[in-house]
Design the sequence.
């Protein structure tokens, strides 16, 4: 007797992680089944995905293209894109892949956890902005099967290193950072870099926003904050190591000095599959096999903080454990969007983040409403600063 496939809801199916998740599912049809797809504005791609996977539930941003797709399919639709909670809590969903951009993914993540669903989380903002609220939802749904399964390669690596290890034996976590698109550029040239250069990552194939965050290393600060909530480790016990090849994805140092690391080629297929298949390891191989002999050497170094001022801003925001991380996360969303639109320079991004950090009046022990308000404040503060010519 064979067990049925794991039934997956993919939130953000038209984005970078969502597309790679569908590649994983496509490669292991006996292991996984798509029961819901939620895309954004790219309804053309969502229609192609719907024709291939024929899920019983679909969602997209409202508009004429979505209306046409709705009329052409027999799938059940959510009333609005903002009602993704209904997809995340469907009884036929075994695991929710939260791969939307921004805070759109927070509400369905909370709903899924409260309903007892495992959530494979690839949405940084949910934990950076709403970490305490997400953990409360996890605790609420844990007895019914709720889990958080990290999808980011760094957090997946830590998670895998911790399987079978008692949490009290953890000494330190080490996240690795490639250094992004401008790791070797002369500092004097950073003022003139273009959006096209910034979205050309040396190792990873990712979306535009996260690739810019990799170039500023702001994303590594966000990842440290995520790790703080995922693994209940204070930020002062989380290190960041520059590792050019992105082969070692993260490391864990234990109380006896032993170090575990998870290695693999820089490909999101494996961490996605690990999160969807847990606690099993699917027999499919979604990423190229690692050949260390062919690699020949791996390189490590300290992070150049003068090259990456956005990293220190993110870490400082995270240390405060109030609404500051939410505010700075919103500020970064706006700053990157302004840079990609050609309205400010690459080097203005950390300046705008510093403005948000310094001018935010935080709320201590915030609820979800306060966290969301702080994130929106961060966006407005940056947009107003750019409009006023501050950056």
Sequence:
């Amino acid at each position: 007797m064979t067990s049925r496939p794991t039934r997956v809801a993919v939130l953000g199916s038209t984005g970078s992680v969502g597309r790679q998740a569908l590649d994983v599912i496509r490669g292991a049809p006996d292991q996984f089944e798509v029961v819901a797809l939620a895309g954004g504005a790219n309804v053309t791609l969502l229609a192609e995905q719907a024709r291939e996977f024929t899920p019983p539930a679909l969602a997209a941003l409202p508009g004429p293209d979505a209306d046409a797709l709705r009329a052409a399919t027999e799938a059940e639709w959510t009333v609005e894109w903002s009602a993704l909670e209904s997809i995340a809590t469907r009884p036929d969903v075994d695991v929710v892949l939260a791969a939307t951009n921004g805070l759109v993914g927070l509400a369905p993540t909370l709903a899924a956890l409260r309903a007892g669903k495992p959530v494979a989380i690839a949405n940084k903002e949910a934990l950076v902005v709403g970490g305490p609220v997400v953990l409360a939802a996890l605790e609420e749904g844990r007895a019914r099967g709720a889990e958080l399964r990290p999808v980011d390669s760094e957090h997946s690596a830590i998670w895998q290193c911790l399987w079978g290890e008692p949490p009290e034996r953890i000494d330190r976590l080490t996240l690795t950072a490639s250094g992004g698109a401008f790791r070797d550029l002369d500092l004097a040239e950073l003022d003139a870099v273009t959006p096209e250069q910034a979205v050309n990552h040396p190792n990873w194939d990712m979306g535009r926003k996260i690739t810019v965050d990799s170039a500023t290393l702001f994303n590594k600060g966000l990842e440290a904050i995520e790790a703080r909530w995922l693994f209940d480790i204070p930020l002062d016990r989380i290190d960041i190591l520059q590792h050019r090849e992105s082969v070692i994805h993260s490391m864990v140092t234990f109380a006896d000095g032993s170090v575990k690391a998870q290695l693999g080629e820089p490909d999101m297929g494996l961490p996605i599959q690990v999160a969807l298949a847990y606690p099993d390891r699917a027999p499919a191989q979604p990423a190229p096999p690692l050949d260390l002999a062919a690699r020949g050497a791996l390189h490590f170094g300290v992070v150049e903080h003068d090259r990456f001022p956005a990293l220190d801003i993110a870490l400082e925001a995270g240390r405060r454990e109030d609404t500051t991380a939410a505010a700075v996360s919103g500020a970064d969303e706006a700053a990157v969007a302004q840079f990609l639109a050609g309205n400010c320079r690459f080097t203005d991004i950390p300046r705008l983040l510093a403005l948000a950090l310094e001018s935010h009046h935080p709320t201590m022990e915030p609820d979800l409403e306060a966290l969301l308000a702080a994130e929106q404040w961060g966006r407005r503060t940056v947009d107003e600063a750019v409009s006023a010519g501050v950056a």
